[in-house]
Amino acid sequence: MARAKSPGVYDVIVVGGGVTGAGVARDCAMRGLKTLLLERGRPGAATTLSSSHLIHGGLRYLLYDRLTTHMTCWDSGHIVRIARPLLAQLPIVWPVYRGHAHGIETVETLLEAYDAFQPMKEGRPHLRLSAAETLRLFPGLSPEGLLGAVSFDEWWVDPLALVRDNLASARRHGAEIRADCAVTNLARAEDIVTGVLCGEEWIESRLVINAAGPWIDKVAGMAGLSIPLRLQKGTHLVYRKKLTPAGLLLEAADKVRYVFMIPSAQGTLVGPTDIAAPHDPDQVSTAPSEIKYLLDSLKRYFPRFPESYDETIVGARPILGQGGSEKLLSREFEVFDHERRDGLAGLLTIGGGKMSDFRLMAETVTDAACEKLGVAAGCRTQLETLSGEALGHVPAYPKPPKWLRRLLRRHPRLREFHAIAHLGATFAAHMARRPFSPPLADAERFRDHYCEP
Q1: Cα separations (Å) of 128 from 350, 377, 440, 445?
Q2: At what angle do helices 159-172 and 19-30 cross, to 10 degrees?
Q3: For a 10 Å CB count at each end of the chain, is N or C smaller?
Q4: Can you spell out the DSSP letters for 327-341?
């Protein structure tokens, strides 16, 4: 039911100025809502900055969560189109060695499955390289046991610029943005949230959207509520120089996880780690064991890799609380309607997800906000660039059915079986085609394949 609006009252207050909150503020403002975003520090400088700086489709989720890969590729394409000046195509090479957990045919099968989703985000088909051509591209790579490599591409992004430009778009559409303004309490009138306390100021709104990433449980706690989160810590080593001509995906020292080497004009990121984080995201810090883990992983491939890095970045991933192993944790997001869930009106929470589907997260929670406020305005964030230009034709790729997403979200083992069944069928087709496969790519073809058109 829509709530009445008083003069001077915001329609929506967005709590959190990372990429998700910035996307929510933009979407709300573009639908004509009087919007205020509050960020306790520098926008984007916490969880968003500590990411791997990639708009990616989630290749590894194909092993156990195929629909997340599908949805992430679907929204990554929208992000690519609206934020193109901030992005750079990044080819990534996955070298395969004798004794790795996944053999070369299995790895290529995974990339063939990924090829089906790549057009959604304007990606390119994979290439397979011989060991000799892989060493031509990466002369410092250890040759011992190298079987070859498979390549794919993702989009590198400057995360702070992505937040900045989303907020600039939000401002152009009428939103107000306040940085260095920490929300310390929520105002309640019986069973309705009516605003927030920021510093010494009570600010009134018809609706509060909690988009605080790993801090969503803390914000919900101000209203006596709880959001189930399972925080995972990710650390990257930062080198302020480009150490490799393309990205690398490397089996880590524990032979379970993988680490990236991500080169860009800003330098090179190595990581991330992926371990359980403290319940309080403000207590997340890099442990010496994480640094050792990353360096040991790199030395498996580059015996002379420099140990002297410039800094580390670390953050907590806000994964919605689930049981089971870390491997089966879903990276999907969810909108928590606290009126329906907890009997407390005036508050919505958007939790989970990742930078690669922030726009879809914003669209989904803004849809819910408009329904609450009685506003009949559709999402337009995919139709206009962050600089304000109309996009014209937007490809209409299908999304997976909602009923299937809900079913697999509730049943992690079924979700894994669904993914493995698809990969099994792809592997059978791959092996049947293998005798007729085209020649392997050489270094020149690799460079031409990933050149900007």
Answers
A1: 40, 47, 6, 11
A2: 20
A3: C
A4: GG----EEEEEHHHH
- Nearest CA-CA partner of 150 in 99, 110, 119, 122: 110
Domains in the chain: ranges and CATH = 1-53+158-228+322-400 (3.50.50.60)
Per-run averaged pLDDT (10 residues), the chain, 453 residues: 61 98 98 98 96 94 92 96 97 97 96 97 96 96 97 98 98 98 95 95 97 97 94 95 96 94 96 92 95 96 91 93 56 92 97 95 98 97 97 90 88 92 96 91 95 64
- Residues near 137 by Cβ (< 8 Å), separated by ≥ 6? 93, 129, 245, 246, 443, 446
| Tokens representing residue 373 in the block | 């406020």
- Residue 135 corresponds to which amino acid? L
> Strand locations in 246-295, DSSP E?
247-251, 258-264, 267-271, 275-276
Can you read off the two tokens belonging to residue 184? 């310390």
How many Cβ atoms from other residues are within 10 Å of residue 411's Cβ? 12
Is the pTM of the predicted complex or chain greater than 0.85?
A: yes
